[in-house]
Every structure is written in structure tokens, then in C-alpha cells.
Amino acid sequence: MIGRFAQFLAVDWSGAKGPRQKGIAVALASAEGGPPALLAPPDPRGWARAEVLALLAGLKVPTLVGLDLGISLPHADAGAFFPGWDASPPDAKGLWALIDALCAADPHLEAGGFLAHPEAARYFRHGAGATGDRFLLPGAATREGRFRIAEHAQRAQGVRPVSNFNLVGAAQVGKSSLTGMRMLHRLRGRVPVWPVDPLPDEGSVITEIYTSMAARLGGMRGTATKLRSFEGLNDALGALGSPPVSGAGSIDDHSADALLTAAWLRRVHTTRGLWHPGGLTPEVARTEGWTFGAV
Which of 25, 37, 59, 236 could form a disulfide with 258 if both were Cys (CB 3.0 to 4.6 A apart)? Predict the structure, then answer.
């Protein structure tokens, strides 16, 4: 029942500190067609993460949601999220619960409490000269950190995800992923998260997305996959069979990413192979999850 969604919602997420985030953008594309549209935040200063949580929990029609964040951490490479730590959870849902519990004192769904934990901190690269002693596995072939099976698949498709254990640099998504996992924990039992949860026959479902993959299908080539003009965005939307959005000149990349990815979800969601990628075993689904669009 993958052709049953009434709308497609893309969320460009943020892991930054603070009550409201200029880096969060939410876009909606209707199954009936038309250009994607940005949803205005309740406050002109930007979205609060709790407001996005409430939006997802309160969806009234069947919606395919794409979250631009990692829904889990690497597990398959070491048989554990945190090898050597006896509190390492057995699966993705246990990971979400652990992160949320250790961040109980953090406001705004922030993740500082988890990253400050003396054991958890050992697995992350925090900044220049501040890399945990367990950031790399023994004998690691690269200094980039650990990757999930889905992220290896992404790399084979020509995009360059950054390890979710890396918290350094403009391309890092580690903080976004950790704050997003707090939200996913709070959505348990309300909106299923594919493939950690089976794809339901009805209702809404959340997926992990990577906006660079939507940009590739939208015609972007090379290493740069960010759109910063309405003209470039509308060229990419046209490649996806979507009508253009109104506007001219510059557009922030968060809004462009959300708009393009909402249209991309609408375009590709009936491609059955995207729901059955070769590397997605039951164990991978249970522990690492997957990125929709990786094959």
C-alpha cells in the first residue's frame, strides 16, 4: 500500500542549541500535485523542535514524512552501538530511549546531556583535539569514523554522508541525529518509523531522508548539492516533474532542501525497490534503520 499517501512532508532538521531554530524548515507536497509549499512556523523566530514533534504526532491524513537526520547509529560494524560499554542498547528503539533518558535535564530536545556523559562521550568526535578514544574501531581503515550499512550504500550512489559519531564541521549531522532520536522516542506508538517499524498498510509513516540524494535526482552533479536560488530550485523541481515555486533570487538552503525533498518523496515513493534495498536485513532494520532512497 505504498501509493496511498495523501501528502509528503519533508523536514530539514537542526541540532543546534536554543528554543527556536532558523535551521528547521518544513515543506509539504500534495499527492494531488502542484508545487511544494513551506509551512510557516508558529513563531516568526523559527520552529521549536517540540512544535515539529506536535505536528507529526497530530497528522490527520496519511502522510509520508521524511526527516533529514540519522535515525540511528552504526551497529553492524561492531555488533553494538557502543562496543565496550555495558549500557549499549540492543536496538534503535533502545538507543532512542537511552539518549532521551540521559538528556532529561536538557531543554528544547537538546542532546548535551548525552554527549557530556563520561561513557557516551568516548565514542564521538567533539572538536579539534577533542576526539573520544572510542571514536574509531581498532584497526579502522579511515579516520572518518563509523558508518551504517545505509550510509555505505549512499556512498556507492555518489553522495558523501558524514559519520553520525562526528560532531565537527558544517556537514556533520551528529547533533541533528541525536536531537531527532529524542523526538522519535517521544513519537513511539503514535507514528511508525520505517524500517525500525514495519511499513504500515494505513496511516502516516516516518522515514529518514538525505537531501543530497533528492538533489541528485533533481539534476545536481558534483560535490555541491545545496540550492541557494529560486532559479536553481525550480530547475531541480522541474527535473522531478514538479511545478515551480514562486520567488526569485536567493533562498536559504534549509528551505530549498525541504521543498525539493517533499517533491522528491512524492515522485519516488511508489518505487518498490526503495522499500526493499538489498542491504536491509531484519537485523539492520531493527538496529540501524535505513535511509529512504539508498539502494
Answer: 25
